[in-house]
Amino acid sequence: MTTHTIRTRLVAPALMVLGMLSAPAFASAPAPAPARQPPPAAAAPKPFKVPVRTEFKLDNGLEVSLLPYGDMPKVALQLVVDTGNIHEKATETWLGDLTGKLLSEGTTTRSAEQIAQSAASLGGSLNIGTTMDQTFVGLEVLSESAPDAVALIADVIQNPAFPSAEVDRVKGDLVREMAIYKSQPGILADERLLQSLYGDHPYGRYFPPEAQLKGYTAEAVRAHYDANVGAARARLYVVGRFEPAQVEKAIRDAFTGWKAGPARLQNLPKQKVAKALQFIDRPGSVQSTVRVAVKALPPSSQDYVKQTVLNTLLGGYFSSRITANIREAKGYTYSPYSEVSTHLEDAYWVQNADVTTAVTGESLKEILSEVATLRKTPPPAEELSAVQSYLAGSFLLQNSSRSGIINQLRFVDLHGLPDSYLQNYVQSVMAVTPADVQKLAAKMLTREAMTFIVVGDQKAVSPQLKVVSPALK
């Protein structure tokens, strides 16, 4: 918990003396301050105008989006492959992460050092990552360097060397990272939550067994890459200031020869419902980490925007109901928050909080009380309006950078949404009514469908849970 220290500003004695000398002997009383005027009413949020993107597709299946944006002479490029942890077998957990990290460790034409130097010479640095559903390689450079950046990204994704020495080194890094992660109660709570929701589906395999991770070889990495990475699963985004003809030529030159590889593969999960409490005992812990989760609507749902409003009002921003209750009013926790975690045709809502051990039961009771209230009673129009203004403003900020726009395009493309989703997002948010929020809460946030996770001192916490709900026993 952060402590705030209040400091008093001291006025220099010399200035005080000067002030007294210059003041009149018999000063009249100061005139009363003018009445403070109320601030002007906020203007209606402006809709986000999505720049029109030019799209084309190579014969090998690579999809390309070119989108002019801004006045600064810079351009962001990102190649996204629809493969991630979701395509790992039970014996391959984190093999996708290992493969992704090794992409920057050398190609058949460049060493790792040469890759970094090439990116730096273009005015940027290579950004590579692996998520549950995607792997990406990105770079932001000066506009004039866009064609060279295309060539560098193409080399990294098409010609990885996967040298054995680097495989062993990166594996060691991952083993150490995993040990650090497993010491954190929040990570342990997330791991148990995903196991409870998804079982043996790849989404439920949060960590690999250490022996499994240590056993991965360069040959295993190469096999995983060959089976999952290719142009048919890839999209290339270019956003910023650039010469379209030059960039398109560079893309065709660099990527036409890339193998198509496997077609996109869906591996949709079936979420489970764990009605009983899932507990991870940490004897002597002074605080508990809690998760309350329920299956949610995926982005493809027509009610997804309504769900976004519901989540924000309930626990998704600083002025949300749960935050105001257990942080501001009760002082049980410092930073509670809720979110909707999404995958292709899948999502779950979760309320997160770290609370003092002594008030674990009361914190859960208050969370469930706020949920119950919203299920029964539509929120006041003024409260909803504040949430809508927050979401509209946040959305515009998220689209105020080249990388932010790429993230939005990735979202709509992954979930099969039209660009009009972005164009109409602000209007869709502002159209949500109090009745919409209450109706969706009643349908989605049922106690019987919730999964509860607590990481903490089980001996101290268990007696508290009796006052919460039979569903937690």
TrEMBL record:
<keyword id="KW-0732">Signal</keyword>
<dbReference type="InterPro" id="IPR050361">
    <property type="entry name" value="MPP/UQCRC_Complex"/>
</dbReference>
<feature type="domain" description="Peptidase M16 C-terminal">
    <location>
        <begin position="217"/>
        <end position="389"/>
    </location>
</feature>
<feature type="domain" description="Peptidase M16 N-terminal">
    <location>
        <begin position="73"/>
        <end position="205"/>
    </location>
</feature>
<dbReference type="InterPro" id="IPR011249">
    <property type="entry name" value="Metalloenz_LuxS/M16"/>
</dbReference>
<feature type="signal peptide">
    <location>
        <begin position="1"/>
        <end position="27"/>
    </location>
</feature>
<dbReference type="Pfam" id="PF00675">
    <property type="entry name" value="Peptidase_M16"/>
</dbReference>
<dbReference type="InterPro" id="IPR007863">
    <property type="entry name" value="Peptidase_M16_C"/>
</dbReference>
<dbReference type="Pfam" id="PF05193">
    <property type="entry name" value="Peptidase_M16_C"/>
</dbReference>
<dbReference type="GO" id="GO:0046872">
    <property type="term" value="F:metal ion binding"/>
</dbReference>
<protein>
    <submittedName>
        <fullName>Peptidase, M16 family</fullName>
    </submittedName>
</protein>
<dbReference type="InterPro" id="IPR011765">
    <property type="entry name" value="Pept_M16_N"/>
</dbReference>
